[in-house]
């Protein structure tokens, strides 16, 4: 774990800070499902804790009741566990601290550091100033402490309408940092909260709540994304003002968020895709959510590996999604059994085969394991593996040509059968009985090897092939109008593919390499009557190519 945050942690420890140990937290807002960007934060926060023999809390940052829901609280826990991390018994809700936040706000008022403002949201915005001009003080800014205490109490008691008053920190309307120009810290909104129900009418703003949540839990290092860098002065101001010990209070450190080519990492946009039904749901295999990636067949190990490899930087950059695909390909190459499936079948009659034979087939080149695949007089091969007017360099099947059937024999194409329209519907071939794979006389070399399935024993299967959800420029940058740029070919369903019978009882989530076609996983839509496979990734590794 060599990154600049770890370095900062070590510096702090050397300086004698955080004597109680390292405590980090992952603080999702339960307003959507976790996506690949969150995975980076999960891996980082739990990773830092593990590395430093510390702990990591799971905290739902649920201070904004309008967009939050228990569905998300549940899915977030499932996804973190799936990624392989454990928060033990330290699952917290920011909303559990609402009473404490209120006390801290009262404390600020008593110190003369907060006031109740009657300005409307628009007025507050207009008074805030700009990057080049200072802000203007509200007429309410110099209310007495007693008046502020009284008004804040009445805000809580429901005496005012939504938006009629707010509580603001009293800092500096001329600060060059706009976040320090008396930020709003409490607002009135009559919204039922998924965790606290109707108990509260006033809700703390994120910038006020977050440092306090960290401080209440005793977090040592509060790791967040770069957009909060300008908020750090307020984070420190608040903890200073409330008298938290500088050697033991949480410290905010920012890192670059993960942005991936071809990939949406905004919860708002992902929610729009779900709500407008452009995808099947949050777990649609094209979604970059962890539940989508899981269904697509990405493995936790591959995602953790990816997060480790991309590292942690202080400036934003765009990571090539091919690198994520490389990680899953590498994992599945090492761990997925090989099988044969035919996506676009062409029938082949082997005219000199009379009996079914069971041929030995290795499951994996290094992990071992084996099975027997039935070899019959009628088989199917991939339509693409036959070409009538083939160029010289076509080393698969052509009229009069030979090719090896994987695990089986060399066959020769003797006759091409066509329908009335001239379409090829069947091939008649013969096998060379002396050429059996692994057999004593199998030393005849031939250039092409193709996959196949037995017509009699193959299982019908649905295969879903995926492409990126959005069409992007060549660099993978996302378009402005993302709904208008949805890729119409992001899902291709092949209803009648065929697969060898060995996969018949595969549980949902089982991975295979379909020889020459890519890595696949059984989808939860699989039933006893019908297998359904998702393609995880193809075999070709564009990332490895770029790297070499
Ligand atoms: P979004 O912009 O998708 O809504 P968010 O930051 O609002 O994301 P949170 O639920 O607040 O979502 O995020 C939880 C944690 O994950 C935060 O600490 C946040 O900084 C981090 N996080 C969110 N997106 C990314 C990303 N793309 N890369 C790294 N960390 C991220
Ligand atoms: Mg956030």
Describe the protein in words.
It is a single chain. Helix 7 (206-217) crosses helix 8. Strand 18 and strand 19 form a beta hairpin. The chain contains 13 helices and 27 strands. It is an alpha/beta fold. Helix content is 26%, strand content 24%. The strands form 7 sheets. It has a 7-stranded mixed sheet with strand order 12-25-26-27-23-24-13, covered by helices on one side. It has a 7-stranded mixed sheet with strand order 21-18-19-20-14-17-22, with no helix packed on it. The site of adenosine-5'-triphosphate has 14 residues, from helix 2 and strand 8.
Topology:
Blueprint (H helix, E strand, L loop, with lengths): L3 H11 L8 E4 L9 H16 L3 E6 L9 H14 L7 E3 L4 H13 L3 E4 L3 H7 L17 H13 L8 E4 L14 E5 L13 E3 L1 H12 L3 E5 L6 H10 L9 E5 L2 E3 L6 H9 L14 H7 L3 H11 L6 E3 L1 H15 L1 E3 L1 E2 L2 E6 L6 E6 L7 E6 L2 E5 L19 E4 L4 E9 L5 E9 L16 E2 L1 E3 L4 E8 L24 E9 L11 E4 L3 E5 L8 E7 L4 H6 L1
Parallel strand pairs: 1-2, 2-3, 8-9, 10-11, 12-25, 14-20, 18-21, 23-27
Antiparallel strand pairs: 4-5, 5-6, 6-7, 13-24, 14-17, 15-16, 17-22, 18-19, 19-20, 23-24, 25-26, 26-27
Helix pairs in contact: 2-11, 7-8, 11-12
The chain binds adenosine-5'-triphosphate (ATP) and magnesium ion (MG).
Adenosine-5'-triphosphate binds next to helix 2 and strand 8.
Global outline: elongated
Mean pLDDT: 94
- By DSSP, the count of extended strands is 27
Distinct small molecules bound, one entry per kind: adenosine-5'-triphosphate, magnesium ion
| Radius of gyration, in angstroms, nearest whole number | 31 Å
- Counting H and I runs of at least 4 residues, what is the number of helices? 13
Largest sheet, order of strands side by side? 12-25-26-27-23-24-13
Counting copies of identical and different chains, the oligomeric state is: single chain
In percent, how helical is the residue content?
25-40%
* Spans where pLDDT lies below 50 across 5 or more residues: none
Tell me the β content.
15-25%
């Amino acid at each position: 774990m060599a990154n600049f945050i770890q370095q900062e942690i070590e510096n702090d420890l050397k300086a004698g800070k955080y004597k109680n140990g390292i405590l980090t937290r992952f603080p999702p807002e339960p307003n959507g499902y976790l996506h690949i960007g969150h995975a980076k934060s999960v891996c980082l926060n739990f990773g830092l804790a593990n590395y430093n023999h510390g702990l990591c809390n799971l905290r739902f940052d649920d201070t904004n009741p309008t967009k939050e829901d228990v569905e998300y609280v549940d899915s977030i826990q499932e996804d973190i566990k799936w990624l392989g991390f454990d928060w033990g018994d330290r699952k917290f809700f920011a909303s559990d601290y609402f009473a404490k936040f209120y006390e801290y706000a009262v404390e600020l008022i008593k110190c003369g550091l907060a006031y109740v403002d009657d300005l409307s949201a628009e007025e507050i915005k207009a008074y805030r100033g700009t990057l080049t001009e200072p802000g203007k003080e509200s007429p309410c800014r110099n209310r007495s402490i007693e008046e502020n205490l009284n008004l804040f109490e009445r805000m809580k008691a429901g005496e005012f309408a939504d938006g009629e008053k707010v509580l603001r920190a009293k800092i500096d309307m001329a600060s060059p940092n706009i976040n320090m120009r008396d930020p709003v810290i409490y607002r009135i909104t009559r919204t039922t909260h998924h965790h606290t129900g109707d108990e509260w009418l006033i809700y703390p703003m994120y910038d006020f709540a977050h440092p306090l949540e960290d401080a209440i839990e005793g977090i040592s290092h509060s790791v967040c994304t770069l957009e909060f860098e300008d908020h750090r002065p307020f984070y420190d101001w608040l903890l200073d003002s409330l008298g938290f010990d500088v050697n033991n209070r949480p410290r905010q450190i920012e890192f670059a968020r993960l942005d991936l080519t071809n990939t949406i990492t905004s919860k708002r946009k992902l929610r729009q895709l779900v709500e407008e039904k452009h995808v099947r749901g949050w777990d649609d295999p094209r979604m970059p959510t962890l539940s989508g990636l899981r269904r697509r067949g990405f493995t936790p190990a591959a995602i953790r590996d990816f997060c480790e490899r991309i590292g942690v930087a202080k400036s934003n950059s765009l990571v090539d999604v091919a690198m994520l695909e490389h990680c899953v390909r590498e994992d599945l190459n090492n761990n997925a059994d090989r099988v044969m499936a035919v996506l676009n079948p062409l029938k082949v009659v082997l005219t000199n085969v009379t009996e079914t034979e069971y041929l030995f087939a290795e499951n994996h080149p290094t992990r071992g394991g084996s099975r027997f695949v039935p070899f019959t007089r009628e088989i199917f091969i991939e339509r693409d593996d036959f070409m009538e007017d083939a160029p010289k360099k076509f080393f698969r099947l052509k009229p009069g040509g030979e090719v090896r059937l994987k695990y089986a024999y060399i066959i020769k194409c003797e006759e091409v059968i066509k329908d009335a329209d001239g379409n090829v519907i069947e091939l008649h071939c013969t096998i060379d009985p002396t050429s059996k794979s692994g057999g004593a006389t199998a030393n005849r070399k031939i250039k092409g090897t193709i996959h196949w399935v037995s017509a009699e024993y193959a299982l019908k299967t649905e295969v879903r092939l995926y492409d990126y959800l959005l069409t992007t420029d060549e660099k993978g940058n996302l378009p402005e109008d993302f709904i208008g740029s949805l890729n119409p070919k992001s899902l291709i369903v092949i209803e009648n593919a065929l697969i060898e019978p060995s996969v018949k009882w595969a549980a949902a989530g089982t991975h295979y390499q379909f020889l020459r076609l890519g890595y696949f996983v059984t989808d939860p839509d699989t039933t006893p009557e019908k297998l359904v496979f998702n393609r995880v990734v193809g075999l070709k590794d564009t990332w490895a190519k770029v790297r070499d």
